[in-house]
Specification:
- About 55% of the residues lie in helices and about 5% in strands.
- Helix 4 (about 90-100) runs parallel beside helix 5 and helix 8 (about 185-195) packs across helix 9.
- It contains 15 helices and five strands.
- It folds into three domains: about 5-165, Rossmann fold; about 170-205; about 210-325, Zinc Finger, Delta Prime, domain 3.
- It is α/β, with parallel strands linked by helices.
- Helix 4 (about 90-100) links the parallel strand 2 and strand 3 (about 110-115).
- Bound molecules: zinc ion (ZN).
- Zinc ion binds next to helix 3.
Amino acid sequence: MGFGGIIGQDRAVALLRQALRADRLAHAYLFVGPGGVGKRRVAFALAQAVNCLHRLPDGDACGACVACRKVAAGVHPDVLLLTPEEATVRIEQVRALREEVGRRPYEGSRRFALLDPAEALTEQAQNALLKTLEEPAGATTFILLAQRAGALLPTVVSRCQRLAFGPVPEALIARHLAAAGVPADRAHAVAALARGSVGGALALAGEAVLETRDALLSRLFPALERGPAACVELAEEIARDREGLGEAFDLLLTWCRDLLVTAVLGHPGLVVNRDRADALAAAAGGFPVEALAEAVAVVAAAREALETNANPRLTCEALLFRLRDLLAPASGGDRNGTRREGELRRPGA
Ligand SMILES: [Zn+2]
């Protein structure tokens, strides 16, 4: 832990270091940025730096003292993390937190209360928190972590000093993965798929994501070619794995996007799936650009529909039928021709 181990959030870390040096820490921060980019790590690093018993000259925590070790282990009595019970943070939880922060720190010099994700606070809970933010208790710093500030009450946002966390550059993630022992080729491919999230990349690196992608693609295109019955069968199979469904759609989306980019540029220079650049180069020319653009749009729409609790099986089926219209090779047709008829032969339909 410590600021030294944070990847790709130099600006936020610099601002916090500066506040630490000047002893001008805010009473409330709002860390805003996508998931997995290090918001929680920075929050803990700050709590560590403030409560460290042997702080280093650069303002970072020593990482070795008893206070540092307690923060790292999540057992420091002055570093509180409030997470949702079930889906929301209820008003009772915020009341309990308020009571807690009203007391003096137990061991450290300053108490930290982390609310992650802050979007989980109900409106009532936010209003309860607002009172505390308006009349800050002496030695407490609140840190609200959120993906979108818009999900919080403006009154809450306005009481916090806001720090923006951006996606972590792909090259930094790849280097981090390589340093963690992930083979270079895999590190690059996974870093690109993680879309700026270190946490996501680490999770992906540990999983067989590239193998999952290859298995999916090896079944998808033959199914599109074979016809509606094969599409229904594959849709059912994909939808059965509820946990992996979002990832499957993500993989499909980046693949279609890569086909489009390769078709437009004429080479796979900017693709996400770099380990499969040759396959992309070979395949991209076979599709009309506008069909690929449409495919990207329909996969993205299906991905979004999933997030809003659409029926997974029906969403998958509709998506595969649509992709079949767009991407299945027309029988005897010219693959480089204009967009194939949307009605494409539909036996059994
Ligand atoms: Zn320390």
